Q: What sequence folds into this?
């Protein structure tokens, strides 16, 4: 059995890095990290995985998840582009830990970010707001952003930003609150989905994006707005 394992390792080690990293992207991150003990060839390979997926489902506490995220990101090979960062939270989750992970994610030069939080019925009554500040470091690299918060009120996740995101082409928000000028800071949007969201600061939602080709608006406070302007020229 040991000889078979060695031969299998030898065959895999002969593959190019790009292919090995693609293989590692399809396994759980913890298992990918465990491959570092196989041989010197594998020791640091996991630090270059281009797609990172974290889920609280595999951790007994949010603090353990936070420690794991910090461990992975602090050892990451910063010479390799991070293509996507995904975070899935299940059940009740600690506000401060969630905030810290989100801040860390948006501080990276990442192309795609997805956050999905799933709460049990009634948990949102005591859940503090989670603010999602888009940082300057990702403003020129972020191409796709997805924020989904189960079925809790849209006030619980607040999307904020102080700079333009010229590379962002796809934005999917579900039960998220954002201020009225946020969309204008994403001038190159092509795909926009807003479900159960809330706009703060104005009774009017203005969408003026010449490149917009797919638009979906459903549920939520949009139907209580005084008017909605759509400029798709």
A:
């Amino acid at each position: 059995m040991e000889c078979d394992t060695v031969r299998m390792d030898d065959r895999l080690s002969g593959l190019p890095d790009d292919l090995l990293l693609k293989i590692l992207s399809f396994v759980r991150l913890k298992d990918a990290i465990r491959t570092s003990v196989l041989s010197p060839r594998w020791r640091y390979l996991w630090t270059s995985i281009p797609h990172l997926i974290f889920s609280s489902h595999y951790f007994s506490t949010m603090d353990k998840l936070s420690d794991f995220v910090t461990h992975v990101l602090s050892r990451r090979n910063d010479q390799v582009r991070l293509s996507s960062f995904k975070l899935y939270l299940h059940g009740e989750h600690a506000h401060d830990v969630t905030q810290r992970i989100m801040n860390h994610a948006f501080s990276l030069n990442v192309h795609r970010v997805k956050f999905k939080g799933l709460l049990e019925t009634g948990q949102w009554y005591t859940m503090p707001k989670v603010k999602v500040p888009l940082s300057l470091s990702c403003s020129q690299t972020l191409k796709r952003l997805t924020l989904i918060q189960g079925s809790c009120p849209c006030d619980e996740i607040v999307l904020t930003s102080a700079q333009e995101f010229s590379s962002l082409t796809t934005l999917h928000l579900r039960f998220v609150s954002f201020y009225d000028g946020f969309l204008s800071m994403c001038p190159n949007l092509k795909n926009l989905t807003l479900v159960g969201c809330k706009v703060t600061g104005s009774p009017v939602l203005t969408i003026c994006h010449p490149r917009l080709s797919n638009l979906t608006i459903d549920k939520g406070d949009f139907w209580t707005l005084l008017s909605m302007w759509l400029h798709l020229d």
Summary: The CA atoms of residues 26 and 166 lie 30 Å apart. The chain has two domains: 1-49, 60-231.
